[in-house]
Amino acid sequence: MNFNINEGIGLALNKIETWLESLAIMLPNLVVAVIVLIAFFFVARFTRSLTNNVLNRFSNRAAVNSLFTTLIHILTIGIGLVIALNVLQLERTITSLLAGAGILGLALGFAFQDIAANFISGILMAFRQPIKVGDIIETNDYLGKVEDINLRVTILRTFEGLNVIIPNRDVFQKPLTNYTKTNDRRIELELGVSYADDLEKVQAVTEKAIGDLPFLLKGRDVNLYFSEFGSSSINFQVMFWVEYPDQPGFLRAKSEAIIAIKKAFDENDITIPFPIRTLDFGIKGGEKLSEMEISRP
C-alpha cells in the first residue's frame, strides 16, 4: 500500500484549518467564558469575606463558620464554571462532569467513611456544643482539659501532661462526662473507727472537722452514715459537697478533708485501728507458739 505524503499533508492542513475556523467562531464565546470565570472568582472572594463577617457577628463557632464560608466559596466558583461551560456550548461536558462527580463522591464516601463520620460528628458537636475549649471532660477512658476542637478530632490534655487526640465520632457517640458543666461535686470518704469509740462522738467530731473547711459548699449538709461492722473497725462513709473548679482542686479538697479528720480524731482520742490478724499455730498438724523451741545459733 503506497502512502502519498502530499495527500497526508493536505489532510492535516485541512484539519488544522477546520480547527482554526472553529476557534475563530468560538473565540468571542471563549473570551466571554474567561471573563465570567474571572468575575466569579472575585465574586467568590467577596462572598466568602462577607459571609465570614456576618457569621462571626452572630456566632462564635469558628469551625462551623469556616465550614460554611468554604462551602459558599466553592459553590460560587462552581456556578461560574457551569455558566462558562454553557457559554462555550458544552452542555454535554457539564452532564459528564456532574455524573463523574457523583460517582467519585460515592467512591470516596465508601473509601473514607471513617473520616466522613468524624467530619459529620464535628459539625454536630459544633452546633450542639456538648463541650468547649477549656472544659474538663472524661471520655474514652481519658480525663483532662479540652485543648482544641476541630471538624475531625478533639485534642485533650490529661492531668499527666499528655496530649490525646480523639476522633470526634468517638467523643460524640460514646459516654462523656463534662465536669465543667457541674458547678459542685460530692466527695465521699470511707473510714473506720475502733469498737471502743463512742459513735455519736465520732459523728459529731467528723462533721465539725468537715464543716470547718473553707471550700465546703454553702447550704449543703455533711452526711455521715455508719455502714458495717468490719473485722477490726466500725466503718462509715462521710459525704460533703465542694465547688468544683477542676480535677486538681477536687483532689486537693479531698486531701485537706482527710488531714482535717485525722487531726480532729487525734485531738479527741478517736482511734483508726489497724487491721487485726491472728496467727494460730495450734491448728491440727501445727504447733502452739508457746510450745515452740527457739533455736539459738
Record keyword descriptors for this entry:
alpha+beta; 3-stranded antiparallel β-sheet; rod-shaped
Notes on the protein architecture:
By secondary structure, the protein is of the alpha+beta class. The chain has helices spanning 5-58, 62-87, 91-111, 113-128, 168-173, 199-211, 247-267, and strands spanning 136-139, 142-149, 153-158, 163-167, 176-178, 184-193, 223-229, 234-243. The longest helix has 54 residues, at 5-58. It is rod-shaped, with a radius of gyration of 39 Å. The termini are far apart.
What's the topology here?
Blueprint: H1 5-58, H2 62-87, H3 91-111, H4 113-128, E1 136-139, E2 142-149, E3 153-158, E4 163-167, H5 168-173, E5 176-178, E6 184-193, H6 199-211, E7 223-229, E8 234-243, H7 247-267
Antiparallel strand pairs: 1-2, 1-5, 2-3, 3-4, 6-8, 7-8
Summarize the structure.
By secondary structure, the protein is α+β, with helices and mostly antiparallel strands. It has helices at residues 5-58, 62-87, 91-111, 113-128, 168-173, 199-211, 247-267, and strands spanning 136-139, 142-149, 153-158, 163-167, 176-178, 184-193, 223-229, 234-243.
